[in-house]
Amino acid sequence: MKKTAIIMDSTGYLTSDIIKEYDIRVVTLNVNIGDETFQEIDLTNRSFFGKLEKISGSSTTSQPAVGAFLETYKSVLSEGYDEIISIHLSQKISGTYASAVMAKDLLENANIHIFDSGSSALGLGLLTWAAADWAREGFNAQEILGKLDTLRPLCELYFIVDTLEFLHRGGRIGGASALFGTLLQIKPILYFNSEGIIDVFEKVRSKNRALQRTYKELERALSSNKPHRIAVIHVGAETEAISIAEELSQKYQGQDIRIFEAGPVIATHVGPGALGLAFHPWPH
């Protein structure tokens, strides 16, 4: 039986206990604040926003260097793994996937497979977790990739931003739209469309209405009566995330509901206070 390693980039945001339990390796993206560059895994959201307050501009993000992937792949293979599945955020919004492919090409004889999640945050994280489960059950890389292809369109991610300022900074919306939306308390619900691009799922007045609208999507998915893995996601909004998780746990007893915090790369684009849900059928 082949031993399969599972690797993801740092925007998967699985908790340390899951990463440790399944021996998932993480290749980190970078966050650029002023003249300084930090690895995402070295920054908490608190330190990130604290540093951001001290500069006049905004932060940016960048994909891992090819060398970072190369080092990780070599390390994993030296530990006795026969094959690697490397799962990453949508190549439509980041060069991370391309960096992974270039590293793979430098290791011509290695059995490495690069998988585009078509998503990010826990859209990516939940797929990685599923792959790690299958690897532990003894499925080989080709079998896991087939399962991931089937699960990917069933994995849904919705994000509610607390402010439009960060979307404006990143060029996602114009200044007038940002001001107008802020004055009207517009809370856009973001998602990854079928092309792997961040898009507006719906624009809602007030955060509570946005949450209720997102709950409807979860309710639709759960109407299949299949068990699901459900991720409650937040950016520096732990109290709200706990409240949401408790509410969902009471309503949907028996479902696997956990809380995850998205880090500075996602925070760069959605800002503090953002909340989200990601979910897919499990076991699948």
Automatic annotation (TrEMBL):
Gene3D superfamilies: 3.30.1180.10, 3.40.50.10170. InterPro entries: DegV, DegV_C, DegV_domain_contain. Keywords: Lipid-binding. Pfam families: DegV (PF02645). It comes from the Bacteria. One of its GO terms (molecular function) is lipid binding. The keyword Calcium does not apply. This is EDD domain protein, DegV family.
